[in-house]
């Protein structure tokens, strides 16, 4: 069992702000804006805010300039507004390549950079300004589907991906599609830290010890690969929320 973790959700480039993380670790999954023409049926930021998608007060923090913009709602988490299943698509080769290697039973983890709402009142594992956090994962229900393989699927095989943001684009452009097992996939209620307690740009041991990434440079923008042991460690931390080991001195 292997895993890849990829960066998703709103950031300082798109749409210009990060989603919030609250003092108790709750957070808002805020998608990036849709950048391509679509065939319709795409929610806006205002639509998601009206559905109370991001916890107390998030709708009041959305800039007016983005409220009517359509969102690129990917990954799709069942139970989140406008979502039906657990699907993900990606058109960027740097992420699509490692994701395309995943097979049924492997995992994909999703992480986001989140802005700390109230640093003085926050749990001690929440980085004071911003940090990178795991926000959800899929256990794959089937092997990853490349863009070429998707084009060859029949209508029934394509159906589970019908609500994915890349399928809703006028031209389906994903280089890979992933489908999560509904019993083994979820959007978390509370985030899981990948940064240290002190600085968002500094990786904790879930990155530097358990993934194949060095944690140097802008690691929070890169796909992170985990072998079986690393994947097991992530799943254990997600389940137990025992974060002290993530920050321990590796020596």
Shape, principal axes of CA atoms: globular
Task: Measure the end-to-end span.
Answer: 27 Å
Determine the structural class based on helices, strands and strand pairing.
alpha+beta
Kindly state the percentage of residues in helix.
10-25%
- Describe the largest sheet: 6 strands, mixed
Number of DSSP-assigned strands: 11
Low-pLDDT residue spans: none
Order of helices and strands: EEEHHEEHEEEHHHEEHEHH
Tally of helical segments: 9
Instruction: Tell me the strand percentage band.
Output: 15-25%
Mean pLDDT metric: 93
Counted up, domains total 1
Radius of gyration: 17 Å
3D structure, described in words:
This protein is 21% helix and 21% strand. It is globular. The model has no long low-confidence stretch (mean pLDDT 93). It has 251 residues and is α+β, with helices and mostly antiparallel strands. The chain contains 9 helices and 11 strands. Strands 1, 2, 6, 7, 10 and 11 form a 6-stranded mixed β-sheet that branches. The protein has one domain (3-243).
Short note summarizing the structure:
This protein is α+β, with helices and mostly antiparallel strands and 251 residues long.
List keywords for this structure.
251 residues, alpha+beta, three-stranded antiparallel beta sheet, 11 strands
């Amino acid at each position: 069992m292997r895993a890849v973790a990829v960066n998703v959700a709103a950031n300082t480039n798109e749409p210009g702000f990060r989603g919030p993380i609250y003092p108790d670790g709750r957070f808002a999954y805020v998608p990036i804006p849709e950048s391509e023409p679509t065939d319709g049926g795409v929610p806006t930021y205002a639509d998601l805010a009206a559905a109370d998608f991001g916890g107390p007060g998030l709708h009041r923090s959305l800039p007016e300039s983005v409220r009517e913009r359509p969102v690129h709602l990917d990954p799709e988490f069942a139970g989140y507004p406008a979502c039906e299943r657990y699907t993900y698509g990606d058109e960027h080769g740097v992420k699509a390549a490692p994701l395309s290697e995943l097979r049924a039973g492997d995992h994909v983890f999703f992480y986001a950079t989140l802005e700390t709402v109230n640093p003085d009142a926050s749990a001690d594992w929440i980085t004071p300004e911003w940090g990178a956090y795991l926000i959800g994962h899929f256990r794959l229900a089937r092997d990853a589907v490349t863009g070429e393989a998707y084009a060859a699927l029949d209508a029934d095989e394509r159906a589970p991906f019908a609500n994915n943001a890349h399928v809703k684009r006028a031209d389906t452009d994903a280089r890979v599609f992933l489908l999560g097992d509904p019993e083994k996939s979820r959007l978390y209620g509370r985030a899981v830290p990948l940064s240290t307690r002190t600085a968002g740009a500094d990786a904790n041991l879930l990155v530097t010890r358990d993934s194949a990434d060095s944690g140097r440079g802008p690691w929070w923008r890169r796909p992170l690969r985990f072998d079986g042991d690393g994947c097991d460690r992530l799943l254990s931390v997600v389940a137990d929320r025992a974060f002290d080991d993530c920050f321990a001195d590796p020596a």
